[in-house]
């Protein structure tokens, strides 16, 4: 099945994973093992209106439509952007903050999506997201302990 023509019926609503950056939500999910992101959410993160522009600037295989379960459990049809489409968009709509968004997506969001899919062996370290009050911290769960990346330590110290 071609991913650009991916559709789903309302009986099989897809459940996205919610990620937060500066209290702004980014919904993402794996489709056929590949990360896809809600265009509207990415636009809010970038503070740019993307919906109309992406169809002109990206290849057809980087966009698709799908039906997701919204916060109330109802069907919501959304436009999705592939991982390569996200990176192309961040380059095309240049803004200094986009580098930080790209790093967050490539270092936290995508690995968390893949780890949550269960594709990693059970004895290997697993990335987890600790969440509280629309904030989250990417940590490793390994051998029964939670490991905080050194770069995230200042954020942890402000919380506690």
Compute the number of structural domains. Answer: 2
Shape: globular
Q: Within the largest sheet, what's the order of strands?
A: 1-2-3-5-4
Distance between the termini: 48 Å
Taking all Cα atoms into account, the compactness measure Rg is 16 Å
Helix run count: 5
**Helix- and strand-based class?**
alpha+beta
Write down how many β-strands occur, each being a DSSP E stretch of 2 or more residues: 8
How much is the average pLDDT? 82
Query: Low-confidence segments, ≥5 residues, pLDDT <50?
Result: 1-5, 7-11
Order of helices and strands: EEEHHEEHHEEEH
Task: Bin the helical content.
Answer: 25-40%
Biggest pleated-sheet summary: 5 strands, antiparallel
Please indicate the percent range of residues in DSSP E strands (runs of 2 or more).
25-35%
